[in-house]
Amino acid sequence: MWFRNLQVYRLPAPWNITADALEQQLASRRFQSCGSQDMETRGWASPCGDDRLVHRVGDQWLIALGVEQRLLPAAVVKQEAEERAEDIAAQQGFKPGRKQMRELREQITQEFLPRAFTRRRKVFAWIDPVRGWLAVDAASRKRAEDVLETLRDALDTLSLALLRTQRSPASAMADWLAGGDAPAGFTIDQDCELRSLTEDKAAVRYVRHALDGEEVRGHLEAGKLPTRLALTFDDRLSFVLTETLEIKRLDFLDVVKERVEDAGADDAQALFDASFALMTAELARLLPALLDALGGELEADAPTPVTVTATGAMPPWEEAA
Q1: NCBIfam families in the record, alphabetically (predicted)?
Q2: Maximum distance among all alpha carbons in the chain?
Q3: How does pLDDT run across 73-95, given as a tens digit for each residue?
Q4: Which of 37, 72, 86, 197 is disulfide-compatible with 116, CB 3.0–4.6 A?
């Protein structure tokens, strides 16, 4: 149980809902397979394969959104519609119009759906009700929003906000690169993307490349800003920070994973719990340190600050909706 990405949100701390109450409310939207005419279904599934929808390890919770999709490519429907349209044209003496083609595609979709293959996946979310964290293991905000939307449907209320910081990530990352030094506890790795604010959106990407040279500083002085920067925290976990405060390519290093082995877990469930406990403990250290590196957390009702980087360029820091 190791997350690969983090879309991080703020809950009220402490969160005034118990794990048992959350379990009952999630049960109202339990996952069910697609019906014959369903393109997709979503619902809450057990994170670890038992009957529980909220998996608890200490004061940390894990939930999982189950998603099933029918795989019916549009190209397949289009090809079948074109073949049938040729037969119709031969019978009626003219090609089907737009309305007739639309109805034909809808008919084919209904016919093919029950025979289409299905694909299942789980999207995991970690809840720290004490510190007020909710983090979704998703590579995009859109995928995370699927989880939040289903969670809102299951709960009576859900007070939630994206993280906002005093400094924009782009501004802070530019200063770290310009000065050749990361904030305390962090080191700069060798992956980075810089993008211009001009209309051409010119970009340069470095992969496994030293970032402390004049070349990178030259791009910064020319007005490019970092949109991604690889970092390591406390020699224990590495990740890529984005300009929108997403954490991607999260990797818990061997020094962390070896602690799971040292715990001596002797079955799959014990190993799962040990991994989850260790992961959440590390993330509970990372997130406050990252917020401090970005000047601290911005209050929910405060205006988004406009920050000027050391190079004088304005960062593309947009307030999340």
Answers
A1: PRK00321.1-4, PRK00321.1-5
A2: 77
A3: 999 999 999 999 999 999 888 88
A4: 72
Inter-residue contact 246 to 227 (CB < 8 Å): no
252 plus 150 within the same structural domain: no
For residue 306, tell me if it sits in a domain.
Answer: no
Same domain, 273 and 286: yes
Residue 201 is part of which domain span? 169-293
Q: Which tens digits make up the pLDDT trace of 258-305?
A: 877 766 656 788 889 889 999 999 999 999 999 999 999 987 655 544
**Domain end residue (candidates: 134, 162, 190):** 162
CA–CA gap between residue 2 and residue 272 (Å, rounded): 9
**194 Rama class: left (phi>0) / alpha (psi -120 to 50) / beta:** beta
**C-alpha distance from residue 263 to each of 77, 236, 286 (Å):** 53, 17, 22
Percent of the chain at pLDDT exceeding 90: 59
Are 135 and 7 contacting, i.e. CB atoms less than 8 angstroms apart? yes
d(C-alpha 168, C-alpha 56), whole Å:
34
- In whole angstroms, give the CA distance from residue 43 to residue 9: 21
For the stretch 207-240, pLDDT in tens is: 999 888 888 889 888 889 999 999 999 999 999 9
Please report whether residue 311 resides in a domain: no
Domain count of the fold of the chain? 3
